[in-house]
Amino acid sequence: MTILPKLKEFLDSHHVRYEVLGHEEAYTAPEIAHALHVSGKMLAKVVIVKADERFVMTVLPSHWRIDFDRLKEALGARHVRLAAEDEFKGLFPDCEIGTMPPFGNLYNIPVYVDRSHTEDEEIVFQAGTHFGAVKLRYQDFDRLVHPTVAEFHCSSAKIAS
Predict the structure, then answer these.
(1) Confidence grade of residue 156 (pLDDT, cut at 50, 70, 90)
(2) Do the Cβ atoms of 29 and 43 come closer than 8 Å?
(3) What CA–CA distance (Å, rounded) separates 21 from 3?
(4) Cα dihedral angle (63, 106, 135, 159), rounded to 10 degrees?
(5) What pTM was computed for the model?
(6) Cβ partners under 8 Å of residue 26, min gap 6
(7) DSSP code, position 158
């Protein structure tokens, strides 16, 4: 069970209680949720987007998708799109590709969290590797990251279409 040393040091220095969860190697959100035996709602997915000329970290339940019209409005941007891994991998040099924790503040990247997570007592998220995750109270995440809260997930009707 390993997590990103930078993240561990940050959480420990702020005296936050958290649990490190090891799991079999997994790459997709459904695989990770299954390996950890947690719901897709509890597993926080990090999606990096390019809003105009800046990178933004978005965080939403792993089983939901981004509604880019709603996100564009929340960001006050003219253009919003998924960022390609090649574009942002250098921003997270200590993370395996696609395993960034939702702590954009550790990388000087603004964080936007979907409002639905504010209702959660705890969240689980990848912690820099394809083998480790962290569970902590949402309230602690909010206190440490100070994300902007907005509603930008697709409704179930949009997902089905």
Answers:
(1) low
(2) yes
(3) 9
(4) -10
(5) 0.90
(6) 32, 34, 35, 130
(7) H
Token pair in block for residue 104: 């954009």
**Distance from the Cα of residue 87 to its chain's centroid:** 17
- Chain segment 19-69, per-residue pLDDT in tens: 988 777 777 888 888 777 788 788 899 999 999 999 999 999 988 999 999
Could you give the CA distance from residue 43 to residue 123 in angstroms, rounded to a whole number? 6
Q: How do beta strands 18-22 and 111-114 pair?
A: unpaired
* Residues contacting residue 119 through CB under 8 Å, at least 6 positions apart: none
Contact predicate 112/59, CB 8 Å: yes
Residue 26 φ/ψ region, left for φ over 0, alpha for ψ in the -120 to 50 degree band, beta for the rest: beta
Instruction: State the Cα–Cα distance between residues 22 and 32, nearest whole angstrom.
Output: 10
Distance CA(54)–CA(110), nearest Å, equals: 9
